[in-house]
TrEMBL record:
Family in the record: Belongs to the TrpF family.
Pathway: Amino-acid biosynthesis; L-tryptophan biosynthesis; L-tryptophan from chorismate: step 3/5
Gene this protein is translated from: trpF
InterPro entries the record matches: Aldolase_TIM (IPR013785), PRAI_dom (IPR001240), RibuloseP-bd_barrel (IPR011060), TrpF_fam (IPR044643)
Protein name as it appears in the record: N-(5'-phosphoribosyl)anthranilate isomerase
Alphabetical keyword list: Amino-acid biosynthesis, Aromatic amino acid biosynthesis, Isomerase, Tryptophan biosynthesis
The UniProt record lists the keyword Isomerase: yes
UniProt-listed Enzyme Commission number(s): 5.3.1.24
Pfam families (alphabetical): PRAI
Catalysed reaction equations from the record: N-(5-phospho-beta-D-ribosyl)anthranilate = 1-(2-carboxyphenylamino)-1-deoxy-D-ribulose 5-phosphate
Enzyme class: isomerase
Keyword Amino-acid biosynthesis included in the entry's annotation: yes
Gene Ontology BP terms: L-tryptophan biosynthetic process
């Protein structure tokens, strides 16, 4: 089964749409420049709504320990998504301090970036017990306000047949129309979407969330996740 993550949920209604449609993971964004950023009180409420139904993912960008501390206290996340320039050493320090698995985002635009993802996966595996994840995303355009969540794809051909030391998700410009092809082509452990299930930046669309999850599940049923990675 391919793991499906819906990221950037910020209201009870759209979170309910993701949960009712069968999302495996739901993402809360804690990056002030993002139109999906939630404050701690909203995040606490949404995390309580999601707990037990989907894994809770807290997304930060080069956050300091004080912010992560507050986020962990408010949401008790299952996974910390690190979407900035966190080094392997910083990732290790976050893991040691907060005792949660992490998913580290890596921007992909070339074979060298894929090699960097491979090295990072091996390093994370050596540091922990295989609980961590890698997220392969598009690189943001120069001068972009956001390091992710820009609705831009990367060349999936760079990662066809990719085998990392850790399970990985694919993101970047996915939507209900493109997710099945990405699953068939790459057979990732999971897929992650934000912009592609919105009607405007930061405004999630319940119908698009449902359509995305249906399309991803149909691709799995067609054998698109033939690698059968662990959940
Ligand atoms: O969603 C955001 O606002 C965001 C902000 C800062 C860093 C990452 C963000 N989202 C992540 O970006 C990718 C791709 O998103 P999209 O589907 O192309 O819009 C995804 O992994 C989100 O988790």
């Amino acid at each position: 089964m391919t793991i499906i993550k819906i990221c950037g949920l910020s209201t009870p209604d759209t979170l309910a749409a993701a949960l009712d449609s069968g999302a495996d993971m739901v993402g809360l964004v804690f990056f002030p420049k993002s139109p999906r950023c939630v404050d701690l009180d909203t995040a606490r409420f949404l995390a309580d709504q999601a707990r037990g139904r989907a894994a809770i993912v807290a997304l930060t960008v080069d956050a300091d320990d004080a912010l992560i501390e507050d986020i962990v206290a408010a949401t008790r996340p299952d996974l910390l998504q690190l979407h900035g320039h966190e080094t392997a050493a910083r990732v290790a320090a976050i893991k040691a301090r907060f005792r949660r698995p992490v998913m580290k985002a890596v921007g992909i635009a070339s074979a060298a970036d894929v090699a960097a993802a491979r090295d990072l996966a091996a390093t994370l595996l050596a540091q922990a017990d295989g609980e961590d994840r890698i997220l392969l995303d598009a690189k943001p355009p120069k001068d972009a306000a956001l390091p992710g969540g820009n609705g831009l794809p990367f060349d999936r051909n760079l990662v066809v047949g990719l085998d990392l030391a850790l399970p990985f998700m694919v993101s970047g410009g996915l939507d209900p129309a493109s997710v099945a092809e990405a699953i068939r082509l790459v057979t990732p452990w999971g897929v992650d979407v934000s912009s592609g299930v919105e009607r405007a930046p930061g405004v999630k669309d319940p119908a698009r969330i449902e359509a995305f999850i249906k399309a991803a599940r149909a691709a799995c049923d067609d054998g698109g996740d033939a690698r059968g990675k662990v959940a």
